[in-house]
Amino acid sequence: MIKESRAEQHIVSVSAVGTPKRSTLMSKIIRDKYLLLLLLPGLAYFIIFKYVPMWGVLLAFKNYQPYLGFFNSEWVGLANFKQLFQDPVFFRLIRNTLLIGLYDMLFFFPAPIILALLLNEVRKAFYKRFIQSLIYIPHFISMVIVASISYLLLTTEGGVINEVIFKLFGYKIDFLTSETWFRPMIIVQSIWKEMGWGTIIFLAALAGVDQEQYEAAIVDGASRFRQLWHITLPAIQGTIIVVLILRMGHFMDRGFEQILLMINALNRPVAEVFDTYVYTAGIIQGAFSYSAAAGLFKAIIGVILVFTTNYLAKRAGHSGIY
């Protein structure tokens, strides 16, 4: 009897393994049909505006002629890239883009973190919300308005800042045409405009910090700085790493509109970056394939920076983004 029961159990287990699963792909789609419908608008956006335009990458490998069309233009391979690398302006573009990007990482990237930490120390909810509202406003101001404000403040012909400098020191500084002051001016504009908006992610991360840790630290006699260093910063460290990795993907994107509005003939040697050069070569001069090669080179550098930063973050013991 025992042998027969074991045999029956074996037959049942084998038959159970051999039967197909009820939860098929189609049944899952039917079950989650409403959630999938919510997914469709976002999916359509990425397909239409992100993936379909990627066919334009082929333009960098062709000698595009408008009268021949996209597919009938001559295939030239890497000729446009060779022309880009041999162009004397290439090294100037690399230098300017990397320097502005480096200043951005050194001064602009930490600014929202520091501001979020300061706001987190404000105990009065009314004052905290009021300050947040004030610092969010510049994000919604057009870069054209920001450039106009910069001009009114910095111009040598009645600019407020230059008038103050003249009253104090007896001379004026031509910020708008100076090669020395161009990069600091761009970074200050970015900090003023986007610093407040950048605090949203870090304030959300700070809201999730366990308050019992602060209470235990107070009992142990830890100062506010010790609480910040040993509790707050480690708690948002993962968020900082993820934001850093994502930001490295835009390291070569230096704000086309911002620099285009502030560039002029006198500061061009330090102001010209890949974004403005692609616009000048592609739209104004009509070198579509050449400018596409320059844009593709910039995008490849961004991808390499993202993968490298993510790899270093994982080697350091952090989770990374994938």
UniProtKB/TrEMBL annotation:
InterPro entries: MetI-like, MetI-like_sf. The keyword Transport applies. The keyword Transport applies. Keywords: Membrane, Transmembrane, Transmembrane helix, Transport. GO terms for biological process: transmembrane transport. It comes from the Bacteria. Residues 94-309 form the ABC transmembrane type-1 domain. SUPFAM superfamilies: MetI-like. CDD domains: TM_PBP2. GO terms for cellular component: plasma membrane. It is found in: Cell membrane; Membrane. It is a multi-pass membrane protein. Pfam families: BPD_transp_1. PROSITE patterns: ABC_TM1. The chain crosses the membrane at residues 34-52, 100-122, 134-154, 228-249, 294-313. Coiled coil: none annotated. Belongs to the binding-protein-dependent transport system permease family. This is Sugar ABC transporter permease. It comes from Paenibacillus sedimenti.
